[in-house]
Write a sequence for this structure.
């Protein structure tokens, strides 16, 4: 990619996206040193100030770190959420060496609709009350997930006795219900985010992020939570282990 000087986008933003693409496409892997500021200046024919602003943007996004006496190094920053394991936000973030934090944006009692009742295995036409908790999740002080969690009112009432800015919701569910989280059914797709969501997640309006719907179950195949979330696509990747169905004749296997 090259700098487009006919584009109204500031040069440092264009350069930041170019450098970011090198990282996301695997051209620059975690631990590698980026070219020096002077080398970037010469390759893209921009000023040192432009280069520094572009690099500062990547530092702010957690993609690189500046090391005194060395230069800029690519960080191993994407958090992998394996579809074979069920972890809450706090657990998976800590497991991968980062610091989780949460800000509760608002909480509200709502009437359930057809879809919510169905996902929680309730009568579809029942007039059920639910708590909706809207939270902004941070990894190393960077906003990474906007999460809406829906639970039955009785469970939500008990959750209000805890500090919802510091408690893991999965841990609360298990503590209150005395039953462990067994599995989660997840749906993931790409979406373009609105200006409001973009502002909270500190991404560009209209940029492609990851929309996630999860239904978490406790023992007895009982759905305990429905969550709708927007994950920053530059912070997260999702993995799934898939098997191809086939009939195997053990006698024909060659070792």
């Amino acid at each position: 990619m090259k700098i487009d000087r006919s584009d109204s986008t500031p040069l440092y933003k264009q350069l930041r996206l170019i450098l970011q693409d090198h990282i996301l496409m695997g051209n620059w892997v975690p631990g590698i040193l980026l070219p020096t500021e002077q080398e970037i200046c010469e390759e893209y024919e921009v000023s040192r100030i432009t280069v520094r602003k572009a690099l500062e943007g990547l530092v702010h996004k957690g993609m690189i770190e500046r090391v005194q006496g060395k230069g800029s190094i690519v960080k191993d920053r994407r958090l992998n959420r394996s579809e074979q394991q069920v972890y809450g936000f706090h657990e998976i973030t800590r497991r991968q060496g980062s610091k989780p934090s949460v800000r509760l944006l608002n909480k509200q009692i709502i009437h359930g609709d057809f879809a919510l009742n169905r996902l929680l295995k309730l009568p579809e036409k029942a007039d059920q009350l639910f708590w909706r908790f809207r939270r902004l999740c941070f990894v190393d002080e960077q906003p990474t997930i906007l999460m809406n969690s829906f639970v039955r009112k009785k469970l939500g009432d008990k959750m209000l006795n805890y500090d919802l800015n510091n408690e893991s919701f999965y841990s609360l569910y298990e503590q209150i219900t005395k039953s462990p989280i067994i599995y989660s059914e997840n749906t993931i797709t790409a979406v373009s985010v609105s200006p409001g969501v973009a502002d909270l997640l500190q991404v560009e309006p209209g940029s492609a992020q990851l929309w996630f719907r999860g239904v978490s179950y406790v023992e007895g195949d009982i759905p305990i939570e429905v969550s709708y979330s927007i994950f920053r696509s530059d912070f997260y990747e999702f993995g799934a282990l898939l098997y191809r169905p086939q009939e195997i004749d053990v006698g024909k296997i060659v070792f």
About this structure: The chain has a mean pLDDT of 85.
